[in-house]
Amino acid sequence: MEIVDQILQGMSLYFTMKAVLMVAIGVAAGILVGAIPGISGVMATAILVPFSFFMPPTEGIPFLLGLHKGALFGDSIPAILINTPGQPAAAATALDGYPLAQQGKAKSAIQMALVSSTIGDTFSDIVLILAALPLALLALKFGPAEFFALMVMGLTIIGGITGSSAAKGILSALIGLMIGLIGFDAVTGAERYTFGIPSLQGGIGTIPLMIGLFAISEVLMQAEKKNSILSVRPKTAHLKGGKNLELKELRFSARTILRSSILGTIIGAIPGTGAAIATFIGYGAAKRASKKPEEFGKGSLEGVAASEAANSAVAGADLIPTLTLGIPGSATAAILMGAFLAQGLRPGPDLFESSGSTMYAIFALLLIGNPIMMVIGWILTPVFARVVTIRQALLVPGVLILCLMGVYVFQGSLGDIKLALIVGVFGYFLRKVDIPLAPLVIAFIITPIAERSMKQALILSDGDFSVFITRPISAGFLLLAVAILVFGFRRNPTRSQNDHDS
Amino acid sequence: MTNLRFSISAAIGAGLLASVAVAPPVAAAEKFPTKPIRVIVPTGPGGSTDVTSRLVASVIHTYLGQPMIIQLKGGAAGTIGMAATMAAKADGYTLVFGTGNHTSIVPHVRKVTYDSLNDFIPVFKVNNDPYLIISKSDKFKNMKDLIAAMKANPGKISFGSNGLYGNGHSMILKIELDAGVKFKHVPFKGGGPAIRAMLGGHIDTAGGLFASAGTLGRYKRGEVNILGIAAAERSKLVPKVATFREQGVNFVYQLWRGFMAKKGTPQDRIDIIVAALHKTMKDKTFLRLMKAVGSPPNPLDGAEFKNMILAEHKQFGEIFKQVGVKKK
Questions:
Q1: Which residue from A40, A58, A260, B259 has the least number of CB within 10 angstroms?
Q2: Is 60 exceeded by the pLDDT of residue B9?
Q3: Is the pTM of this model over 0.80?
Q4: Which DSSP letter does residue A245 get?
Q5: What is the C-alpha separation between A264 and A312, in angstroms, rounded?
Q6: Residues A137, A345: Cα–Cα separation, whole Å
């Protein structure tokens, strides 16, 4: 009966019209700021969180929960419309979203992102409510060896996103791997590829890398076109973003959305793995299982659904280690945790004991936030989709300025702007020779975690490599990685040939 | 994100903060400050230093007459943020909000472009938390227990730190020196992941503060044991936990968070900031927020603050010298 009491108490305190309204304001603010090119969801959260300091907990906490949801979806919008993903997870969305936008289907692409985000988020919220504690305990079983094996499995995703040539895909991944090694080795302290430049000691920042690789190279690609294209409205402008998403398109992707939701929730519950890995794993699995794998990377709505459902499923699951262990699973969760603390809510094992009623109210608000996001997103989508009707001559410089601003504000460093520009020129040349960018990003994200986990595991095992196959979870992931590779090769022996024909 | 390298926009965030926190009119006679004061925080977002600085900024404008704008400049163990403070004018409009890690540990293990003792004026310490060594409650009871186990099984007991030559690593170097033992040191990326690995049974011990991943609550519930507290005296929060000194390790380390100014900043301006900070420390809203965060203010300024930093700097200098750490 105590639980019922707590739920009712929480409801009366937090589940008010005002609280629901604050969720809506948080969602809308998150979408709008997150949709600015160059401002990633993490930054959007960081920018808006200080507002909550001036609200009482009954308003501030709902605002933060809405913000968390909105900012994540907001990221997908520039990725789809102008190929400028602000963070690695959105890079998977851009793989198919941007081709769709260029085909005049911007609106249905954004709507697919919205629907699959909402479903993924709802799914992981329900899992959080029902199984937060058991999942948190399962996540504790992940030690260094398990992290390493999971990362190795993550690397096999690259096989699914190499584009037209396996060799170019592997080359891209190797470049990403090398970039991921820059900086101090976290375990031995050795300095690598820094050339004595202090700002490289901490490694290459994800934000300058992403903005340079995607946004700035895209600006260069656009600028290179004949000025007639720059000054003329885009060909597909008359479509005003195109048609609404059709029910049959959604039904076709239903299995993909469910699969990505499950994968995103499981991977998101393990702190320190993050949305990018979950998203690419979801995308790779969808391509392998799809009835139309050949459309992936060329404008597949299913591809958008796969990455967005996984990405948003991480959002709810991210809160599992944050709320139950008091250990944030991602940068966004870390910022939210700081704000929760300032609201007098102390995430961690004490939470259920000290503020049980608040917890249930949070759960209820998380759930109600999903339909709210659906409605607000649906209303805003036609507005965003009209971006494709803007003249390139106005859009391209605007995007460039916003992106450079985004890079600067993230840690107030001019060095990061230089870095983004250098990476941008580099990305431009990679694209000119048809080297896909997604494998680079995924290898860049995975390498540092994989390397650190491997070294930690080997310190603990006194240098004995068998630790990776004698621990069951670790062995399971490594086996899965081998299976994916073998299965992938057997299924697509003639793939590169087919792609050349198309 | 995997990558807590993600930093954020302090500039925008704090800019918005400032625009919300509309400053009240300044008293007519004061000439300082006449514009917002920029506070450089040399860490990433979401940590205790970032949060503390923002909580100070959310209140101090009432007493200062101008807002404080928090600017995160993380990276390279805080050396970028410290160097950025040195690059600004010594006019009181740029301060740095750092920790003992920035003044007393990092300069011993990294090549830095500044002298953390002589190039900065310690202005005001806001709060501090003693460093702790913890294990699961069924592993060890206290430090004596731990040291005995380490002597019985040399090279077998592991410690997860928040990073190479960070707070936790420095602490175990001193334990190793004083007790004549050797840990299996496993650096993690941040204190949270290290404590998580300890809770999962992957490592034996970890370091942290009362607030790290709910350590105080876990201790009270009997989930973890605090083996020792690196304070001069026992804490009222955990009166049964013995200090490091009581257990034979001569190590005192309170992770403080406080303001420093560039050398040459006029003393009258520092006095105005210190006066406003003292009023902030007594502000009801601020006290409520700091209590919620779990680290109530413990202010210190002037010579006392400076002496504390000097002693701390000397302690770590001796540890790294004995271990033979070279600057990188």
A1: A58
A2: no
A3: yes
A4: P
A5: 7
A6: 22
